[in-house]
UniProtKB/TrEMBL annotation:
SUPFAM superfamilies: Ribonuclease H-like. Residues 139-301 form the Integrase catalytic domain. InterPro entries: HTH-like_dom (IPR025948), Integrase_cat-core (IPR001584), RNaseH-like_sf (IPR012337), RNaseH_sf (IPR036397), Transpos_IS3 (IPR048020), Transposase_IS3/IS150/IS904 (IPR050900). GO terms for biological process: DNA integration. PANTHER family: TRANSPOSASE INSF FOR INSERTION SEQUENCE IS3B-RELATED, TRANSPOSASE INSO FOR INSERTION SEQUENCE ELEMENT IS911B-RELATED. It comes from Leptospira congkakensis. Pfam families: HTH_21 (PF13276), rve (PF00665), rve_2 (PF13333). GO terms for molecular function: nucleic acid binding. This is IS3 family transposase. It comes from the Bacteria.
Length: 306
């Protein structure tokens, strides 16, 4: 019984703590001897062991299991408000304070968001500039009417690569993305081609971006014209004119990129596919979308129009 004595002297002084110790070690020692050494009754131990949890405790345990799963699937970024919304959508009747308390007990926290200020596009190029058609109105009445785009950099195995994205302002869905080794216009055109093929923008769809040389290039403007799209550009040196794209890159980097290391561009593409296509577009809820994911929000629109 030396093991019992060691644990006892380490602070095993509460009755519940003693019962738990006996339960954990009953395969090593006889229950009678441990009860005697810890000065608790055998009947008291068995009453505790065979106790029935209250309905509230059972519910809280089930709820905590669900909370842990949601927290893990969200790359540990969701705090209690968003987890609470998801629980309600799954049919769990609970309040936000309970979710917050259970997360605190389980030591579950949302990852903090770091600020990023990337500068990847060259705007002092002397090419003609398109007018700002959005004027910071980042809303749209239906899918395929207003798209915005930007380019950011990612470090992969000591080298810089460039991620181009296109976002539909109706539901914040990433409708196109491309990872490239350079800032050549071809990557942007490839990204647009994929977005157009999959999502078929409306005629005169506005395509908004900064003044980067890729967006001002003749080749890209011809591609927009071929697809009957109207170009819009931010004012000079004003990143807030393209705030939605900037916000997505901040989210991507704080939630995902800074927590992983890619060994190759192929590995990066696979992981980005999972984050963008599987998680962000299909699962990540947005407060601006009524706490639904981009694709769910779009499908609700399509259902209303059917």
């Amino acid at each position: 019984m030396k093991k019992v004595n060691r644990h006892f002297h380490k602070g095993l002084t509460t009755k519940i703590g003693k019962y738990q110790f006996i339960k954990d070690n009953k395969s090593c020692f006889k229950v009678v001897k441990m009860c005697k050494a810890l000065e608790v009754s055998k009947s008291g131990f068995y009453n505790w062991k065979n106790r029935k949890l209250s309905r509230r405790k059972v519910f809280n345990l089930l709820l905590l299991t669900e909370i842990k799963q949601i927290h893990t699937e969200s790359f540990e970024i969701y705090g209690s408000p968003k987890i609470h919304k998801i629980l309600l959508s799954k049919g769990y009747l609970c309040n936000k304070k309970l979710v917050e308390r259970l997360m605190k007990i389980a030591n579950l926290r949302s990852k903090t968001v770091k600020k990023f200020h990337p500068t990847t596009t060259k705007s002092n190029h002397g090419k003609s500039i398109s007018p700002n058609l959005l004027k910071r109105n980042f809303t749209s009445k239906m899918p395929g009417c207003v798209w915005c785009s930007d380019i950011t950099y990612l470090e992969i195995n000591g080298r810089w690569f460039y991620l181009t994205t296109i976002i539909d302002l109706y539901n914040r869905e990433i409708v196109g993305w491309d990872l490239s080794e350079s800032l050549e216009t071809n990557s942007l055109i490839s990204c647009l081609d994929k977005a157009v093929k999959l999502h078929k923008p409306k005629r005169n769809c506005i395509f908004h971006s900064d003044r980067g040389i890729q967006y001002a290039s003749k080749e890209f403007r011809m591609k927009l014209n071929d697809n009957k799209m109207k170009q819009s550009m931010s004012r000079k040196g004003n990143c807030w004119d393209n705030a939605v794209s900037e916000s997505f890159f901040k989210t991507l980097k704080s939630e995902f990129i800074r927590h992983v290391k890619f060994k190759s561009i192929e590995e990066a593409k696979k992981n980005l596919f999972f984050y963008i296509e599987i998680f962000y577009n299909r699962k990540r809820i947005h407060s601006t979308l009524g706490f639904t994911s981009p694709i769910v929000f779009r499908k609700l629109y399509e259902k209303r129009c059917a």
